[in-house]
Amino acid sequence: MRSSRWIAFPCILILGLGVSGCNLPQAPGTPSPTAVPPPSPTVTPTEGPCMIIADSDLTVYQRPSVAADVFGTMMAGESYPAGGQTADGWFGFDPGVAQAANIGVFRLRWVQEGTSGLRLEGDCASVPVVVGPPPGICFDMPMDTTQVYEEPNLASSVVATMELGDYAAVIERATDWAQVDLGQGNTGLAVVGWVEEWTLNMNGPCEALPIVTVSSPATATPVPTAGPAALTPRSGDITCRFGPGMEYAPGGTILGGAVVPILGRDEIGGWWAIDLPRHPGMRCWVSVDDATTSGDTSSVPVLPPPSPYVSAVTVSMTPETATIACNAFPYTFGVRFTIEVTGPTTATFRRILSDGHTAPAETVEFLEFGSQSFSDYYRVGAAGTYWFRVTTSSPNAVSGEATVTMSCSP
Fold first, then answer.
1. Taking all residues of the chain, what is their mean pLDDT, rounded to a whole number?
2. Are strands 168-174 and 139-140 parallel, antiparallel or unpaired?
3. By CB neighbour count within 10 A (0-12 exposed, 13-18 middle, 19+ buried), where does 195 fall?
4. Measured on CA atoms in the order 171, 173, 174, 180, is the torsion positive or negative?
5. Which of 172, 146, 171, 169 is nearest to 159 (CA)?
6. Tens-digit pLDDT profile for residues 304-348
7. Distance CA 264, CA 141 (A)
8. CATH number, domain 139-203
9. Which CATH architecture has domain 51-126?
10. What tens digit of pLDDT does each residue of 165-178 get?
């Protein structure tokens, strides 16, 4: 007898297993079919991951403070696994929505312990304590190792290094540079310095940052008066996207006042293709409405749009561990997975179980960048460690996996 079996393959009868199901998201306006819920476990484990549960509607904040912007409402009956907690009693969770640029603690949304209608269950003492970003501050959350310079000049001394997961307040900006204060962040360093503009990955009220003029031969960008085509943001900072359209994911920011060479345009002439300043080879697209041009734009070549791709696959199973009586099997674990893309595409994927079962290939269509989430469940018949994996095969190969541990006592 197998100790586990596949429960929810989509829309296809799987010979030999005698099961069928469909978990693809419904098109907008399409009535949802009546779902058949998985059977309830015989015994509810007393231990497990820390779960944030709403017994009544709860206000959820962008940052761990009642002075922060409101993210939304957690409806009564909703629950999420806790991803972090602060020393002053806030619990954060990943809401499972597309967050192409947010990383680390900035992916969390927050509720305050002790709020009426909020219930915490499971091993909440083991939830990692994090330094939550305060409200009202623009932060830089670099996506890779980033050097902090003493001056806005590559020839100046490196005074600190920020790693993935670090964040620091952005004080002001200049062409190709931004000044950051590591003392306002999670590094524990009392350092103020400069980072290159192309490394910025910002979160918060960043639109009103002061723009300063700095003298730096290493970073000065000449303003062309004639010759090759170039563009300048029309008003303040502008967003550069992965492809020529709002349906493509943001790919970076062009600082107000910067002058950037134009590499190409789209076929209908609505978008300019450029390389991000100080990061040659990272192609992105700027709307013609957001920029003014100089130089000879008549000879700019038409470039094809990029092929969107799967940027992330994430899988979670709940609870992560469970213990029941040995005569109480089978036991059902909940599964949730998310596929995130950079633009319009059709993703092909498979669900794979640790017991050897592999679902037929499925497809999901994306009309724009973002993510789509799916629910499933995994029923097991004995103690052991189990995993649930989701792997995409097109437009590119990406995998995500979650693991759970099941034990029993006489």
1. 84
2. antiparallel
3. buried
4. positive
5. 146
6. 999 999 999 999 999 999 999 999 999 999 999 999 999 999 999
7. 30
8. 2.30.30.40
9. Roll (2.30)
10. 899 999 999 888 99
N- to C-terminal Cα separation, the chain: 20
Class at the top of the CATH hierarchy for domain 230-294: mainly beta
Q: CATH number of the domain at 4-37+309-409, please?
A: 2.60.40.10
Q: Which helix or strand (DSSP H or E) is residue 248 part of?
A: none
Region of poorest pLDDT, from 30-39, 73-82, 220-229, 350-359: 30-39
111, HSE (Cβ side, Cα atoms, 13 Å): 30
Closest CA to 64 of 49, 38, 86: 86
At 312, give phi and psi (nearest 5°): -165, 145
Q: Give the integer Cα–Cα distance in Å for 339 and 370.
A: 8
The token duo for 398 is 């990406």
The closest of 197, 266, 278, 267 to 238, measured between CA atoms, is 197
Residues of the chain with CATH 2.30.30.40: 139-203, 230-294
CB atoms within 10 A of CB 152: 24
Q: Which of 92, 110, 88 is nearest to 50 (CA)?
A: 92
Confirm whether pTM is higher than 0.90: no
Residue 251, both tokens: 């790919």
DSSP, collapsed to helix, strand or coil, labels residue 92 as strand
Alpha helices, H only, 79-180: none
Quick one: tokens of 194?
A: 């400069």
- Residue 154 to residues 181, 195, 275, 294, Cα–Cα distance (Å): 18, 10, 20, 28
Taken in order 189, 190, 192, 193, is the CA torsion positive or negative?
Answer: negative
